[in-house]
Automatic annotation (TrEMBL), chain A:
PANTHER family, alphabetized: ABC TRANSPORTER PERMEASE PROTEIN HI_0355-RELATED, ALKANE SULFONATE ABC TRANSPORTER-RELATED, MEMBRANE SUBUNIT
Official protein name in the record: ABC transporter permease
Subcellular location: Cell membrane
InterPro entries: MetI-like, MetI-like_sf
Domain of life: Bacteria
One Pfam family named in its UniProt record: BPD_transp_1
Lineage: Bacteria, Pseudomonadati, Pseudomonadota, Alphaproteobacteria, Hyphomicrobiales
Similarity comment: family membership: Belongs to the binding-protein-dependent transport system permease family.
Topology of the protein relative to the lipid bilayer: Multi-pass membrane protein
SUPFAM superfamilies (UniProt xref): MetI-like
Entry keywords, A to Z: Cell membrane, Membrane, Transmembrane, Transmembrane helix, Transport
Domain ABC transmembrane type-1: start-end pairs: 72-251
Positions of transmembrane segments: 23-44, 80-98, 110-132, 138-161, 182-212, 232-252
UniProtKB/TrEMBL annotation, chain B:
Organism of this sequence: Microvirga puerhi
Keyword Electron transport included in the entry's annotation: no
Protein name: ABC transporter ATP-binding protein
Keyword entries, A-Z: ATP-binding, Nucleotide-binding, Transport
Cited CDD domains: ABC_NrtD_SsuB_transporters
PANTHER family associated with the record: ALIPHATIC SULFONATES IMPORT ATP-BINDING PROTEIN SSUB, TAURINE IMPORT ATP-BINDING PROTEIN-RELATED
């Protein structure tokens, strides 16, 4: 409870400012990783097409920066479209599943079975149907990413406590207000859990789409570099791909913190 | 001011199993009635039926001569858990009542602040539920049940999850808040002392199937003080209720279980 943690200070030793920065520990682990990479290259001297020197990768990033940026932009655009449309597809399905028993019984089993198909295996088929354009990548992204949003939204909506529903009914809330004022805010933490999975899968979907047929995007660049044994360029492309993943995830987390500051997953005082 | 509630031959069965035998009860306007009884005596079921949140299998309930067919809205409910909305601060949790009923915000915000202050929550209006203790949360829940000045207040073991000291304080505060607007109250509880302290009348219920065992008047003057629990009048009523429970076999004194020869040995 809130009043309890103000009374007993756990630690009195002052923590230096640089250690209190949240970015400190991830940066340390990043440098350790880079150091291990450098050490491996110096110790075992592998062929550059197997494991390039970190400096060589850095050089490629600098020299190919405009091209890398262009392809990153393409993949990031596909990812954000796939993410947005996943939400647009998943939310109504989830609302209907949570609201109507008949809809749940007809659609839910179908949905679960559809998830047993490896969606990556469908990529060539989507390519045949939709062609080489943007729509193929976005469609594959949606197929890969929308399901967790459906599940988490349904779980959130269905876990509203019975007494809370009684409360709403005793206040005479209309169905619309019941949803706006009780169901949706209650489900929001769970929905965001699904959105975090969705955003990472949307990146996967976009790259898979680029693998099967594209002339731009980081997936295409990786395939191209692989064919030409340009491993340093491949590493550079991978680094930018990681950046897309990390930044988009952080954006979802930021939105979460803005929308639900009350929740324990966001609060500073919770956990640890 | 409260409305009278008439419960007429109400029964409830689940899958053919009788949970509540025919029950009739009349609550006068502004009366504070407690229902005490062990688990499974149908007291919560009865409460939900009065609220219109559950339908009786047979019989009917009317509030101020109007038969209850859908959820009552001129009502305040306090549940065993506070059921606060985590995403709203204390004031907004209370004000959802006004919002839901499209009542003027400013008038009710002032009322809510006034109620919260009376419940000892002054200065916590902008706190979020996760910052409150269990007792404080339940106070907010009581304020939320009263802010729109309902004619009927239903409480389902509201202090059951609180510690004994907090419970004492809550009883005193509830009595104070109730005396301000005098709604008709149905108060479900496990605690005999709580029931006697708060009520005008006490309904003792028996389980399997749920039924009314006895109805007792509590002729103690208001407003009551905690020290009243030491008086002979108070304890006479408590004993009478306990006696009913003993007769039902809900509680047993130790001697009842010890074989006779053992008592003889101890006496020697």
């Amino acid at each position: 409870m809130g009043h309890a943690d103000t009374t007993i200070p756990i630690s009195v030793t002052p923590v230096p400012v640089w250690r209190r920065m949240r970015a400190f520990y991830p940066i340390v682990s990043l440098f350790v990783l880079l150091g291990m990479w450098q050490a491996t290259v110096m110790l075992f001297e592998p062929a550059p097409y197997l494991l390039p020197h970190p400096i060589a990768v850095a050089n490629v990033i600098v020299s190919q920066f405009p091209a890398l940026l262009y392809h990153t932009g393409i993949t990031a655009f596909e990812t954000s479209l796939a993410f947005t449309l996943s939400i647009a597809v998943a939310m109504p399905i989830a609302f209907l599943i949570a609201r109507f028993r008949w809809f749940e019984e007809t659609v839910y089993p179908l949905l679960v079975v559809s998830q047993a198909v490896p969606k990556v295996a469908l990529a060539p088929l989507i390519l045949v149907w939709l062609g080489f354009g943007l729509s193929t990548k976005v469609m594959i992204g949606i197929l890969v990413a929308f399901f967790p949003v459906v599940i988490s939204t349904v779980v959130g909506l269905k876990s509203v406590p019975k007494d809370m529903i009684f409360l709403g009914r005793s206040m005479g809330l209309s169905a619309r207000d019941m949803f706006r004022k009780i169901y949706f805010p209650f489900a929001l933490p769970s929905i965001f859990g699904g959105l975090k999975v969705c955003i990472t899968l949307a990146v996967v979907g976009a790259v898979v789409g680029e693998f099967v047929g594209a002339d731009k995007g980081l997936g295409y660049l990786i395939l191209l570099a692989s064919g030409q044994m340009q491993t340093a360029l491949m590493f550079a492309a991978l680094i930018f791909l990681v950046l897309i993943g990390v930044v988009s995830f952080a954006l979802v987390q930021w939105a979460e913190a803005r929308l639900m500051p009350w929740h324990s997953s966001v609060r500073q005082d919770a956990g640890h | 001011m409260g409305k009278p509630v008439r419960i007429e031959q109400v029964t409830k069965s689940y899958h053919g199993l009788e949970a509540l035998s025919p029950t009739s009860l009349f609550l006068e306007e502004g009366e504070f009635v407690s229902i005490v009884g062990p688990s499974g005596c149908g007291k919560s079921t009865l409460l939900r039926i009065v609220a219109g949140l559950d339908t009786p299998t047979t019989g009917r309930v009317s509030v101020a001569d109007r038969v209850v067919t859908q959820p009552e809205t001129d009502i305040g409910i306090v549940f065993q858990s506070p059921v606060l909305l985590d995403w709203r601060n204390v004031l907004d949790n209370v004000l959802i009542q006004a919002e839901a009923r499209k009542l003027p915000h400013d008038v009710y915000a002032a009322r809510a602040r006034d109620l919260l202050a009376a419940a000892g929550l002054k200065g916590f209006e902008n706190a979020y539920p996760h910052q409150l203790s269990g007792g404080m949360s339940q106070r907010v829940s009581v304020c939320r049940a009263l802010v729109h000045n309902p004619s009927l207040l239903l409480m389902d073991e509201p202090f059951g999850a609180l510690d004994a000291l907090t419970r004492d304080q809550m009883m005193v505060d509830l009595q104070k808040l109730w005396l301000r607007s005098r709604p008709t109250v149905v108060f479900v509880t496990h605690s005999v002392q709580e029931a006697v302290f708060l009520s005008d009348r006490i309904v003792v219920m028996a389980p399997r199937p749920g039924r009314v065992e006895a109805v007792l008047d509590v002729p103690l003057p208001r407003s009551r003080r905690l020290s009243m629990r030491g008086t002979a009048e108070f304890n006479a009523i408590v004993d009478e209720i306990l006696h009913h429970f003993q007769r039902m076999g809900v509680i047993r004194d130790e001697e009842d279980e010890i074989p006779e020869n053992t008592t003889v040995e101890m006496a020697l």
